[in-house]
Design a protein that fits this description.
522 residues, alpha/beta, binds 2-acetamido-2-deoxy-beta-D-glucopyranose
């Protein structure tokens, strides 16, 4: 696997000029500025104003629909919209509020998101909306039910306005597929917004959605959040129901590694969305309990340790970590300590092994022949066909299948060894963090790269993947833009069930460093 990593690294140097050249056409296109002030209010502010009739839900939904229509031709993030239906639902909300059949307190308690528009990653499922999840092999398939997390949000009064783009079956860290195509990064259209929740990230960061629902199997919430400078939370598994998600999470490993979580522009909204998405299960996480930062222990690492095959951590990411940690220590009063967890250097292998040995990973090669699933397509034939645009399976899907088939070049016989290593690593973290510690670590070693570069930069996902295989909660925190105008930030993880510690650190750093900043415009 390390040899594979080294080959990738060399390829990434050699191919850099090609990607730069391919990206240059889109490099100097800017989004229109966010001019409607409604688009800069948080969910809490919007919901309060709607309840008090200072704003109508119709005005708010219309503002977001208009912004979607304005930026989507540049971003290509929407798979299917429900703008008309959403505006109709908004009018019904306004009528309900005007009828005064409930007091404002009742409305807040029963429906904290009443009248607020949201977006949803296509794979989560909204009844009647597209559930192709970027796969030609699933074209025109519609969701039969609302995913549980969406249902909880709807019951709280939220109004979904669109389902958003993903790579084929969410099996990539870039958002491009053969149905909707390639989604662009609002901060530089020549770059990817990351994936797999890339459509969400592009819309939220460009002010075309206030918050949304993403899913994270190996960084799919946190990497797009990092690439577009928004907040994203990968929860402790087991609190947000996975029901309705495609690919379905079947089996114990899958249910542990895959989590559905919130993505948002403002830290408060992240918590607000998360609480609603959990439903009744939220109580056990004590999300409303005040976190005393003076009693919080902050541990951090600036990179995974030395390995010549890793994607090197960019200086702007390292500086963001130093800035954040310094503030937490000297202003917020946390105790701060740089640590060296040697185990993390080996997580590339233990994560990849644990991950690829997960049962029920969707197999695109047998899906291509649904009538005769035993007759699998040949992955190498599909690879050649895809180079000439003749395959129904995306290039990313094929590369993923190759990695899966080869078990990422790790001998399958070592599965138990790495499973044990994974368990041992969780114990290391639990001992270190207990219930009053967090761990700060790069979300991804580099800011958003050019479209297509995932092919040579995949090794960087070990930074996010480790918290999926360990089942730990982790929040991406945006820390502004670097000198190239690209968002940077880092993740803060905690021991299982301590999601509230991650969210408290996100809030503190947003207050100190402003969190999300709008994309450049001309
Ligand atoms: C996008 O990136 C390219 C190449 O790095 C750069 O030349 C261009 O100025 C950037 N565009 C914006 C809008 O920042
Ligand atoms: C792709 O799918 C379409 C419709 O499902 C089918 O007609 C076509 O033959 C397929 N193409 C290939 C190359 O398999």
């Amino acid at each position: 696997m390390r040899i594979f990593g080294a080959v990738m690294l060399i390829l990434s140097w050699l191919t850099a000029p090609i990607f730069y050249f391919l990206g240059r056409k889109k490099a100097n296109i800017f989004l229109p500025p966010i001019s409607n002030p409604i688009l800069k209010l948080s969910i809490t502010q919007l919901a309060r104003k709607i309840r008090r009739r200072e704003l109508t839900s119709e005005q708010v939904v219309k503002a977001y629909v208009d912004r979607c229509k304005e930026v989507n031709p540049l971003l290509n993030a929407v798979v299917e919209d429900r703008f008309e239906a959403a505006l109709k639902e908004a009018k019904e909300v306004d009528q309900l509020i005007a009828s005064r059949s409930k007091t404002q307190d009742e409305l807040e308690k029963e429906t904290p998101l009443l009248g607020v528009p949201i977006t949803v990653k296509e794979s989560i499922g909204i009844k009647g909306m597209s559930l192709s999840v970027g796969s030609k092999l699933r074209e025109n398939i519609k969701a039969q039910i609302d995913g549980d997390s969406v249902r909880n949000l709807k019951s709280a009064g939220a109004i979904p306005i669109a389902v958003t783009n993903t790579p084929e079956l969410c099996l990539c860290w870039e958002t491009m597929n053969l149905i909707t195509g390639c989604t662009n990064n609002p901060y530089n259209l020549s770059r990817t917004p990351g994936g797999s929740s890339g459509g969400e990230a592009a819309l939220i960061s460009s002010g075309a959605s206030i918050a949304g629902v993403g899913s994270d199997l190996a960084g799919s919430i946190r990497i797009p959040s990092m690439f577009t400078g928004i907040f994203g939370h990968k929860p402790t598994p087991g609190y947000v129901s996975l029901n309705g998600h495609y690919p379905e999470a079947i089996g114990e490993d899958f249910e542990k590694f895959l989590t559905i979580g919130p993505m948002a522009r403002y830290a408060d909204d992240l918590k607000c969305m998360f609480k609603v998405m959990c439903g009744k299960a939220a109580a056990a996480l004590r999300l409303d309990e005040e976190v005393d930062l003076k009693k919080l222990k902050v541990y951090y690492m600036e990179n995974a340790g030395f390995s010549f095959v890793d994607v090197k951590v960019h200086s702007s990411v390292r500086d963001a970590i130093r800035k954040g940690v310094k503030h937490l220590g000297s202003v917020a009063g946390c105790s701060v300590k740089k640590v060296c967890i040697n185990e993390l250097e080996g997580t590339a292998e233990s994560c990849a092994s644990t991950f690829f040995n997960m049962k029920n990973i969707p197999d695109l090669m047998s899906m291509a022949n649904p009538d005769n699933p035993k007759e699998k397509k040949n992955v190498y034939v599909e690879l050649v066909k895809s180079i000439f645009g003749l395959s129904n399976i995306s290039n990313a899907g094929i590369l993923f299948t190759l990695l899966h088939n080869s078990n990422c070049f790790i001998p399958r016989s070592k599965k138990d060894y790495y499973l044990k290593e994974n368990d041992d690593n969780l114990k290391v973290f639990q001992n270190l963090l207990q219930n009053d510690g967090v761990f700060i670590y790069p979300t991804h070693p580099i800011p958003a790269y050019y479209h297509g570069q995932f092919r040579v930069k995949t090794a960087g996902v070990m930074y996010t993947m480790v918290f999926n295989t360990l089942g730990m909660p982790s929040t991406h925190i945006p820390m502004g833009l670097n000198s190239e105008g690209l968002p940077v930030g880092f993740q803060v993880a905690a021991a299982p069930n301590n999601d509230r510690l991650c969210l408290a650190v996100a809030k503190e750093l947003e207050t100190a460093f402003k969190g999300w900043v709008p994309p450049p415009s001309k």
